[in-house]
Design brief:
By secondary structure, this protein is α+β, with helices and mostly antiparallel strands. It has a single domain, classed as Sufe protein. Chain: A, CATH 3.90.1010.10. It contains six helices and four strands. It has helices at residues 11-18, 65-78, 83-86, 91-98, 107-125, 140-143; strands at residues 31-36, 42-50, 53-61, 136-139. Helix 2 (65-78) packs across helix 4 (91-98). Mean pLDDT is 79; it is low at 1-6 and 131-169.
Length: 172
């Protein structure tokens, strides 16, 4: 499949979009975050820390297939990493692992990276006090450091897209 800028959608992107890994809320998470991007997609991540490593990470999104693929790949990259390394997973790492995305949808990888990083920051700030204490919500501008004008996102009971859970060896 080709897009406007002639870049192909890779088999890896299609696989993660059709069969997202680690999709769905994570009970007993140590940290969480939800961010809404400029395109209107909302992504939420949960992370669980044990012995200094991310032992579980999960996500949801109400976004498109590209958002699903990017969120899925971000969880695969972060799981098993020391917290410091997971908090450093960025857009470039997600794009590289997926084999690239067309320019017009690269922002999905940035949203996934920002939300994962915010969940790791939430864990550092609050999660070490114990699981289940909530999480943070932020606008894209908050996560990108542009200030509070974007405000808090998400509403209680917000319906997010359904996917499949997986993880582990399927994350390749």
């Amino acid at each position: 499949m080709q897009t406007e800028d002639s870049r192909e959608i890779t088999a890896t992107v299609l696989d993660h979009a059709r069969h997202p890994r680690n999709f769905g809320p994570l009970e007993g998470a140590s940290g969480s975050a939800r961010i809404t991007g400029p395109c209107g997609d909302t992504m939420e991540f949960w992370v669980r820390l044990e012995d200094g490593r991310i032992t579980r990470v999960a996500f949801t999104t109400d976004g498109c297939g590209s958002s699903l693929a990017c969120g899925s790949m971000a969880t695969c990259l972060a799981e098993g990493m020391p917290l410091k390394d997971a908090a450093a997973v960025g857009q470039k790492e997600i794009l590289n692992a997926l084999g690239g995305l067309p320019r017009e949808i690269e922002h999905c990888a940035l949203l996934a990276a920002d939300t994962l990083q915010a969940a790791c920051a939430d864990l550092l700030e609050y999660g070490l006090r114990g699981p289940g204490r909530g999480g943070v919500g932020a606008s894209w501008d908050d996560a990108r450091g542009a200030g509070p004008e974007g405000g808090h996102v998400g509403r209680s009971g917000e319906r997010l897209a359904r996917g499949t859970s997986g993880g582990g060896p399927g994350c390749v």
